[in-house]
Write a structure and sequence with these properties.
The chain is mainly beta and about 650 residues long. Helices cover about 5% and strands about 45% of the residues. Strands 5, 6, 7, 8, 9, 10, 11, 12, 15, 16, 19, 20 and 21 form a 13-stranded antiparallel beta sheet that branches. A twelve-stranded antiparallel beta barrel has the order 22-23-24-25-26-27-28-29-30-31-32-33. A two-stranded antiparallel sheet has the order 1-4.
């Protein structure tokens, strides 16, 4: 349920953004030059000509090999028709000086302005291109705000270390948040979070572990009351109004509020106020002090078998700092102290107390548009009012991973894909590739095999360096042998729902020795006999050895509370003529948890945006944990992929 809701938020966030279409890059030629025949399988680039190649003096090129400099002659500038263009073979392109792509129908003046832009692999954003740290953990807002009409969308997950009574990957809290600058002084935020795992620690006196359900959603406003966006001192007033749905127990388990053998469920209206004060001590160091108050219910269960204790209101004081050693990296930490009169933690004996909420983290921006954040914290709540709360049933250190998307921020320039390189963005079968489609591109694939497996995935590139996995859904069938992992995560007919993302860190097409990426997905098997989740993480390296051969190296693991299979995938992509590729794959897996497997696929490139794979494999499936499990009998299947 949680994965479906977060996946829906991801999908809605992408609907309003139109896909970008990759444009060819061209070399201008004089209007009196003969037409050139169409060339196939070429990269389309601007490239600097030598000083002698000036086509009748219509353009001049610096001897240093810099960007093309255009000379606007009156006769040329007065022409009504656009320039003529021709394709440039890939071998003639120097990526160090290749320039940006003009529209083929652009006027001479506009084409010159575009061509004289920075080279395609020259991207050096400054600190001002990156968004400031809005929060030092969810419990400590800063006085930093988004500018007018600037927005930020983030998705994150929080969990304690250890599986607890839930087993699997432990207690998960999934959340999403949208921040929007309404004016230079006023910022609006909307948020949603859900946690539906049983309590972490076994509750004393209960024969069965109580189920637990927290769902929060609401909105907040932050008003800058002192200072400006450029001043070192800033003060803001922020407040939230939220609905907090709390459920404990069900038809099979007791609740924690009374002795009735029934579910207690309450819709609570809660909120928070805070007065953050921030000081930019140096260009890289910012300090914040944030007093506040959280308004939470002090009891639950009234009219449902008896009232029991709960958290209550809390006045808080908090402080923290952020340090940005380089524009793309921010280190931060904070501490929050609840002063009462309520509490923010309870243990396995249902004894309530007040504990400090401590947070330390790092924010790494792939580019100003895409950020990845990881932190350690004992906080479990994910909204302004509930962020003061520790893990229910045990105060325990946990981790949080967050993806941050700034839609209007600068993106890494579009890659100069050749048709061959672009085909690698379709990925593999059981061994992934490190490339992602260009920003704005949607990617859908559908898979089925002769033993009943059926899966589909919807992806969307939010950046030239990042692809959302908005939804992966499907079911395994007839996986044999049936191991403990298979029964929990690949059971017959169990609906598997997953979300995640793929980030590219190095690009061979930008001069790196190979392309490198990482991918994380999370979700669960919704079979009633399981309802267990796992986190799947992989690193991917792709090396394009030449125009017809590429190799992939793909270490991966499926982290869960039973046994974690770890594997190493290797594969090749061999071009067979213009429209076909042969893809052999092998996964070596630690036998104590999973099982190795091999696959062979023939890919038909129907068009630059469409592909069909026919394959044979003894893997349990081609997605996530299926790549780390084997099947006694080979599976024959197909995978259809389309990008648009």
């Amino acid at each position: 349920m949680a994965e479906r809701r977060i996946g829906l938020l991801l999908l809605l966030a992408s609907i309003s953004i139109q896909p970008l279409r990759a444009q060819p890059i061209w070399q201008p030629m004089p209007d009196d030059a003969p037409a050139q025949p169409k060339q196939r399988n070429t990269a389309h680039q601007w490239y600097p000509l030598s000083p002698t190649e000036t086509s009748g003096g219509r353009r001049a090129v610096p001897a240093s090999g810099g960007p093309i400099r255009w000379q606007a002659l009156s006769t040329l500038a007065s022409q009504a028709k656009p320039l003529a263009w021709r394709l440039v073979p890939a071998a003639a392109v120097d990526l160090a000086t290749a320039a940006n792509t003009p529209d083929p129908s652009a006027s001479p003046a506009k084409a010159a302005a575009i061509a004289n832009g920075p080279p395609i692999n020259s991207f050096n954003p400054t600190a001002s291109d990156y968004t400031a740290q809005l929060r030092l953990g969810d419990a400590v807002p800063t006085a930093q705000q988004l500018s007018d009409r600037q927005s930020q969308l983030s998705f994150f997950q929080r969990a304690p270390f250890g599986a607890g009574e839930q087993r699997g990957t432990g207690n998960q809290n999934y959340a999403a948040r949208l921040d929007v600058g309404l004016t230079e002084q006023l910022q609006f935020s909307g948020f949603y979070s859900v946690a539906d795992d049983p309590l972490f620690a076994p509750i004393s006196g209960k024969t069965k572990q109580p189920s637990n359900y927290w769902e929060s959603y609401g909105g907040s406003l932050q008003l800058r009351v002192a200072g400006s966006s450029s001043s070192p001192w800033k003060m803001a007033l922020t407040g939230s109004v939220e609905s907090w749905n709390v459920g404990s127990g069900d038809s099979a388990t007791p609740n924690i509020f009374n002795n009735s053998i029934s579910r207690v469920f309450t819709r609570n209206l809660v909120g928070s106020l805070a007065l953050p004060l921030s000081w930019q001590a140096t260009p890289s160091l910012s300090l914040s002090f944030t007093p506040g108050v959280s308004f939470l219910p002090s009891s639950q269960g009234s009219g449902q078998g008896g009232s029991g204790s709960f958290y209550g209101n809390n006045i808080t004081v908090a402080a923290g700092a952020s340090w940005r050693p380089i524009p793309s990296v921010t280190l931060f930490g904070s501490g929050l102290l609840p002063l009462g009169p309520g509490n923010n933690s309870f243990n396995a004996d249902l004894e309530y107390s007040r504990v400090a909420i401590l947070t330390a983290g790092i924010n790494w921006a792939l580019n100003p548009r895409i950020g990845l954040e990881g932190m350690l914290t004992n906080g479990f709540g994910a909204t302004p009012a509930t962020a003061v709360l520790a893990l229910p049933s045990e105060n325990r250190l946990g981790y949080s991973a967050r993806f941050i998307y700034n839609p209007g921020a600068p993106d890494t320039p579009k890659l100069p894909f050749t048709p061959r390189s672009r085909s690698l963005t379709f990925g593999g079968l059981t061994v992934n590739t490190a490339l992602v489609p260009p920003a704005g591109t949607a990617n859908i694939w559908i898979n089925a095999d002769n033993r009943g497996n059926a899966f589909t995935q919807l992806g969307w590139s939010a950046s030239n360096d990042f692809q959302f996995i908005l939804l992966n859904a499907g079911a395994f069938q007839k996986v044999d042998p049936i191991t403990t992992l298979v029964s929990k995560y690949a059971s017959d007919g169990g609906a598997n729902l997953r979300i995640g993302g793929k980030a590219v860190f190095l690009q061979q097409l930008r001069g790196a020795p190979f392309t490198a990426a990482g991918s994380i997905t999370l979700g669960r098997n919704n079979d009633s006999s399981s309802f267990q989740g796992y986190l799947y993480a992989e690193a991917i390296a792709t090396w394009e050895a030449n125009s017809w051969l590429a190799f992939n190296l793909n270490p991966k693991l499926a982290w869960n509370g039973i046994s974690t299979p770890i594997g190493l995938g290797v594969s090749a992509n061999i071009q067979l003529g213009k429209q076909f590729q042969l893809i052999p794959e092998l996964n070596a897996v630690n036998n104590s948890a999973g099982a190795g497997n091999a696959s062979l696929a023939l890919r038909w490139l129907v068009s630059p945006s469409t592909a069909f794979d026919l394959y044979v494999s003894n893997a349990a499936g081609i997605y996530d944990i299926g790549q780390l499990l084997s099947n006694r009998d080979a599976r024959v299947g197909g995978k259809f992929s389309i990008q648009f």
